[in-house]
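Before surveying the methods themselves, let us examine one representative protein, pairing a chain with its fold in C-alpha cell form.
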Amino acid sequence: MKEQIQARLPADHPWRDHILVYDTLPSTNDLAKTLARRGAPQGTVILARNQTQGRGRMGRSFHSPRDCGIYMSLILRPNCPAKELMHLTSAVGLALCRAVEAATGLRPGIKWINDLVYQKRKLGGILTELGFGPEGLVSYAVIGIGINCLQRAEDFPPELGEIAASLAMFCPEAPDMNALAAQLLLCLEDMSRRLSDKASILEACRQRCVTLGQPVVIQRNNQRLEALAVDLDEEGGLILRFADGREETVTAGEVSVRGMYGYL
C-alpha cells in the first residue's frame, strides 16, 4: 500500500517518506498522538487496513472494516494559539471533498462540521485532536480521516443502514483506494500551506456545506433547540437563526447538529 501511494505522488512531495502503514490498529488517531508526543515530524501519515476502535466526534465509533476504506491520521505542527485553528476541521473537509472529486469524479459536500456526504448519505468523517506545548501553543494537530470506499449497502451494521454509504455505491467502477489516498495527501499538503488564508477557505467551504439553508436541531446538554443554519462565520462557526429572529453562532465543541438527514 505504501509503495502504491508513493508511486502516485510527485518525487518532491514533502510527506512521501513519512507514510506508515499498519495491518490493524485500535485507532490511527491514538497512534498518531503517541508519535506526535515523541516528536514525529509534520506530515507523518498513519494508515491502517482496519481499525478495531475507530472513533469520531463525541466518542462515537467509526465502522472500519478491513480493506473497505481509508483509515488515516495525519500529524501537523502548527505551533500557534488554538484560536488560530478554529477553521481547521472545515479546511480538512474541503480538502477531502477536493480529493474525492479528483479521484472519483463525485462531488461530495460537507455536513457541518466534520462529515463528508453525498446524496444525503455519510461517506466519511473527520476527527481533529490538538496537543499543547508548555507555552500553551498547539504543539501538534492530529487529523483523523475515515472514508467509506468499497462497502456494499449490506456491509453496514443495521444502525447505519439508512445513514452511511460508500464511494463504490455511487461510482460505476470500484474506486482505487491507493489513488484516493494519494489525492488526500496532495490536497491535505496543499491545505497545510494555505491554512492562514481563512477567508478563501471558508468561502469555498460555504459552497460545499450542505447544512446551510437547512433546519437543524441543536443538542446542548439536555436541551433540543430548533433553528435554521444560515452561514459560517469568519472562524468556521455555524450561524443559526431561531424562530424569534435571534441569531447565534455555535462551534463544534459546543453542540451536536442533528436533523436534516434524519441522522446524527
Q: What stands out?
A: Confidence is low (pLDDT under 50) at residues 260-264. The helical segments are 2-6, 28-37, 88-104, 177-193, 198-208.
